[in-house]
Structures are given as C-alpha cells and as structure tokens.
Specification:
CATH topology of the largest domain: Rossmann fold
Structural class: alpha/beta
CATH architecture of the largest domain: 3-Layer(aba) Sandwich
Strand content: 5-15%
C-alpha cells in the first residue's frame, strides 16, 4: 500500500520548547486499518499504537481510538478540542486512508463509503475542521497525517464527472509559525511499508528521532528525510513547506551530568564534586574543602587529599594503565586525533571509607528492591572496587543490565561500553553496544550521546561512518559539560570535520573546558595547543608540560608519549632525562600507542635511556606501528631492512 505523511505544526509563538507545564499536554491518536468498503492497511494500527506510546513517554495525556466510525471519530475530535483549551501542547495523529477533493484534505474513518464527491461531507472528516479545534486554544498545535496515497476510491466518479484525486493537497501557509511536511513530494507516491517491517518508512523514522533530547524540529526532519531516502533506496523523498521563525523542540536539551551520583543530587556541590572526584591533583580537593567545609563529601575529600599528598611526598604517582586512542606524532603540522571512548567514570584508586561502605550498603538494599538509580550506582562501585566491594566486572555488568532494562539512560551507556569491550562476561558486540548507546542518547544522556557519536565517527556497530551524524551528538554531549564530549567536539573543530568550520580558537576553548574537569585527553590536547601556540594561546612549553604531566599521571598513553618527548629534549623546564623518557615511552607503547612504539623503538635502536641496543626489539616495535599505517615507523623499519639489521620479515614479528 502507498502512503503519504503530512505534518502541520502550528505555533503561536516564535520559539517554543515543549515542557511539562501546568497547562499539560493532550493528544488524539487515530489508526484505521479495517475499512468496511476498502482494502485494509497492514501497518496503520502499529503506527498509531507506537506513536501513542511515544507521546505518552513525552508526557502527553493521550486518547487512542482504532478503526472508528465517523460518529466516533467526530466525537473524539470534539473531546480533543475541549482538552486543548489552555493546553501547553496538543497533538493530533492519524494513520489511515485520506484523499483530496474540492481543495480539501479528507480523513476517512473505517465506515467511509465514497461514491461521489458529495459523500465526503457525510462520510469523512475535513482536516481543516480538526486543525480548527486547537486554533487559539493550545500554545502549540501539531498534526501528523500519515495517510495512504493509493486512494481506494480514486476510480469512482462523482455526479459532476470529476474523479477524486489519489493524493493530498499541499497545505498553504497563510500565517507565520507553521511547518507542513509530507513523506514525499505532492503528487508522488509514498510507501506504506518496506518488506515485513511494522511501520511505514516515514513514521518509523519519525519515531526513531521524536524522543531525541535537544533535537530542533528542522534538524529532526532532516534526519527523517535521510532515513526515508535510505530506507526506500531513493524512491521516496520527504518534502516540507515552512514559515517557522523560531526553534521548536519535542524534547528540549536535558541538563544532566554524566554520572549517576550527579543525577541523584542536583545541587551545585554535587556537580562540583562530580567534576573533581577522579582528579589526581591535591589542589582540587583543597578547593572543595575550602568551599564546602561542611559538605556531604568532606570525608571523601579529606581521605583523597591525604592519599594524594602522601604519594606526592613519598614517590612519583603510580601510573595506571588504561586504554586510550592515538594522537599524531609530535609535529606542528599534524592535527590532534580524537580520544577513544572511555568509561563513564575513569578508574581510580579504591578508597575504602566509612562513607563509601555505608553508600555501598544502602545502594545494595535499594538495588535489590529494583531501584534503577541504585542499581547503576552499585554497578559503578563493583566496577571500581569501592565501598569494600570486590572489583568485579561481572557484578557491575549484572547491575548495569538490571537498570538498563528499566530504561535508565546512564546504565544503557555503561552496559553498551561493556558490550563494546567484551567485559563482565558479556560478548564483544558492537551492534548491541550501538543499540544501547542510541537508547541512552535518545534520553539526553551525555555519555550515550558521546559514545554514539564515536560509533558514527568510526562507522562501528552497523552504523555508517558519518562525521555529520557524530558532530551534533558530540555537541549535545559537550553542551551538558561532558568532558569527553567537549574533547571530541574540540577535535572536530580543530580538523574541520562533520560540517564544522575549522576553528582553532573554538577547539582550544573546548579542550580547556575538558582539561579543567580533569579529562586526560583534554589535558593532552590543550597541552599540544600551548606547545605550538595555537587557538589564540601563547607558545608555552612549561604550561604544555604541566598539562602533559596531568594527562600522563592518569595513565593516558598520549600524555605519556608526549611527556617522554619533553624529557628526551629537556624542554618545558624539565631536565634532559633519557631514562625517564624511556619509562614513559614504554608505558605508552604497552598500551598500543603507535607513536609511543616508534619513540621506544628509536631508543632500542640507539641503546638510549638505559635500554640495551636491540635491533630486533626496535624492529618489533616499528612493525607494530607500521602495520597501523604510521609513516615514521614504516620509514624507520625500511631503514633497518635496507641496512640488513632487521632480519627477514616474519608473520609473527608483531609478537614476542
């Protein structure tokens, strides 16, 4: 069956975002499948039921009627009009047959029996009469018309000899603040469904984006258009006519933070604590204690500060090994590469305190009663080995899944990361990870948005490699102060990717926001900008070194590699120290950083930094990096082969 979709969005203001206001939200959803005098439509009831469920999740008071007679439909429309008085938003959705005649668009109930144009007034409902029900009553009135273009009555001829059109008439926009969108161009046909899928292409695309937080309606329809064109292989292209003067959001941006602890405490102190709790800088905790001497995290801050001060006075901080992606070699003419997706909360040294033990006990009690927020928090504690709990990825995955199954956005993102890494007894499954990231991102979770954007950037999990999809997701995440999202968006501005203008100043601003929250990738990237004096920042090796050290101290492979380079050169106020450089290059190389591998290979080739002169080890390291396309490694490896120092190439040269 062939269908069309009409969306009419009527605004009484110039810029409106739907909210759960006192006036409330009302919706009427109508689906017609079993026509008494025409062929049935297979997908219309699915479309209506799914739209009803989506609108309920968006806070609408929804009346749903299926296969109504004309009198039933008319009565429902009147109730809809009454409910729209004083409403913050009203939505009408229709899925079924409709046709155009006499310059009007007519909606056909299940009982419609049309033999001539004269029958329409008695058998059908004029779309204009429905739109009039909300005219001047609701702040925002929205009408979705998902109607079949294959008019079942098109062959019937009226008394005047005129045949009724199989299509719908375009809606003329006489006032500002109106958007009309069809699933395909006027006069063209649109598909009711593709293969055995349960929804029409347009409605399926609309449903997939309707609940995305912070997605403005023009951007939403652009995504819907893209989805429909891809789904129908170019046979159907949505079309729209608009007189909008402002922005409109079905779901406005959600001002949430990236961890569940911050989600459960909305006050400023909790947000401040959330931004520093993984920091390795004692000064951050001194600032917290000065600002909040009686704060709820005082005991944790005092314990963390004591540990950090003891480490600083006794020995250099222990560098933990954690996964990170790569940035190009230290060179001014090469852009900084983006960071890999990281867990929502970076690993930190467990601190068993009475407060942590009590938190773990209470989380467990609440989680076992089915509380999703407690389940995700308990999962974090198991992941990090906090509160006297063992470090246990299996338990963490178990609790993340319990919370994710209840729709908890943070848990969905965390569980997706576990599937991505194959942790906690879960299989390594990018497609399942992508599905979970998408669910999380749709709810406005900044971690989910960042992780989904990363998958679009890399083309993983069955998603197309699409920088233009990734960029707005990184922006949504960054706008919620997600440090990793800020860093990734900074990468895109630095490189001019995803449709963004290349802008070093904006990149520097985002890197600084990320670095100030303690993000290791942001610290490293900001350090690179200070190193080369980019983005309006002065050329400052000492500031660069400070940032590289902060990054390296968190186990960031890029920070370790770059800090090692500065020790090798004796720059930024550091002594020239080949042994310290070799130690840092090895830490970086052991995490798979190709530039760390090249630099460590150089030291083995030259016998520097206390390392033996070892051409075989240099060859192994160069090959690891060369196999990933590193040009410097390929050149160095070629030199060893040319000089007869590498030995014959072997298949297992990349392993020891």
């Amino acid at each position: 069956m062939l269908r069309t979709v009409l969306i009419a969005i009527l605004f009484l203001g110039t810029s409106v975002a739907l909210t759960h206001a006192d006036g409330g939200r009302v919706a009427l959803v109508v689906g017609v499948s079993k026509y008494e005098h025409a062929a049935s439509l297979p997908n219309t009831l699915n479309d209506a039921k799914d739209m009803s469920a989506a609108l309920k999740r968006l806070g609408f008071d929804v009346e749903t009627i299926l296969d109504p007679s004309r009198s039933e439909l008319e009565a429902a429309v009147r109730r809809y009009g009454d409910g729209s008085v004083g409403a913050e938003a009203s939505v009408f959705y229709y899925s079924g047959h409709a046709l155009e005649a006499g310059g009007h668009n007519w909606i056909l109930p299940a009982t419609a029996n049309i033999n001539s144009e004269r029958d329409l007034r008695f058998e059908a409902i004029d779309l204009n009469s429905i739109l009039e029900q909300t005219d001047g009553t609701a702040k925002v009135a929205i009408a979705f018309l998902d109607a079949c273009r294959d008019n079942p009555f098109a062959g019937r001829v009226s008394a005047s000899g005129r045949s009724m059109s199989r299509g719908l008439e375009r809606v003329e926009l006489s006032t500002s603040g109106v958007l009309v969108a069809f699933s395909t161009a006027p006069g063209q046909i649109a598909l009711d469904g593709v293969s055995a899928k349960k929804n029409s292409p347009f409605t399926a695309a609309l449903l997939s984006h309707l609940e995305t937080a912070g997605l403005e309606v023009k951007s939403l329809l652009a995504r819907v258009t893209k989805d429909v064109v891809e789904e129908t292989k170019g046979k159907q292209r949505p079309w729209q006519n608009s007189s909008l003067e402002g922005d409109f959001y079905f779901l406005p941006p959600v001002a949430t933070t990236s961890t569940p602890l911050a989600q459960s405490a909305t006050n400023i102190e909790a947000i401040f604590w959330d931004s520093i709790k993984a920091s390795r800088n004692p000064a951050d905790f001194e600032v917290y204690l000065a600002k909040y001497p009686k704060g709820i995290f005082v005991e944790l801050a005092q314990n963390k500060l004591a540990v950090l001060q003891q480490e600083t006075s006794a020995k250099p901080p222990t560098i933990q090994s954690q996964t990170a992606d790569l940035i190009p070699a230290v060179s001014q003419d090469k852009p900084t590469a983006p960071a890999e997706v990281a867990p929502a909360v970076p690993p930190a040294k467990p601190l068993i305190t009475s407060a942590d033990r009590e938190a773990a006990r209470l989380y467990k009690l609440s989680a076992d009663k089915g509380n999703a927020s407690a389940q995700v928090n308990l999962g974090f504690f198991y992941e990090q080995g906090r509160g006297g709990l063992p470090k246990d990825d299996h338990e963490a995955a178990h609790y993340f899944k319990l919370a994710a199954d209840q729709g908890n956005a943070q848990a969905q993102s965390n569980l997706g990361f576990f599937y991505r890494e194959g942790r906690g007894g879960l299989p390594k499954d990018d497609r399942e990870a992508a599905r979970l990231f998408k669910l999380s991102a749709k709810q406005g979770n900044s971690d989910g948005q960042r992780n989904l954007g990363f998958f679009y950037r890399e083309g993983r999990g069955g998603l197309p490699k699409d920088d233009r999809e990734a960029a707005p997701l990184f922006k949504l995440s960054a706008d919620q102060a997600n440090a990793s999202g800020q860093d990734l968006l900074g990468n895109f501005y630095e490189q001019g990717r995803g449709g963004l203008t290349k802008d070093d100043r904006e990149a520097a601003r985002l890197y600084k926001l990320s670095a100030d929250q303690g993000n290791a990738d942001g610290q490293n990237n900001l350090g690179m900008f200070y190193r080369f004096g980019r983005g309006g920042l002065p050329q400052d090796d000492r500031e660069a070194v400070r940032l590289f050290k902060l990054s390296a101290d968190q186990g960031n492979a890029d920070g370790q590699k770059t800090l090692g380079f500065f020790y090798r050169e004796g720059r930024g106020g550091l002594p020239q120290d080949d042994r310290e450089a070799a130690r840092l290059f090895k830490l970086s190389a052991d995490q798979g950083n190709q530039f760390g591998q090249v630099l460590l290979g150089n030291f083995y080739e030259q016998g520097r930094g206390g390392l033996p002169q070892d051409d075989r080890e240099a060859t192994r390291l160069y090959k690891l990096a060369a196999d990933r396309g590193n040009a410097e490694a390929q050149n160095d490896l070629a030199n060893l082969f040319r000089e007869g120092r590498a030995g014959p190439p072997t298949k297992d040269m990349g392993s020891r």
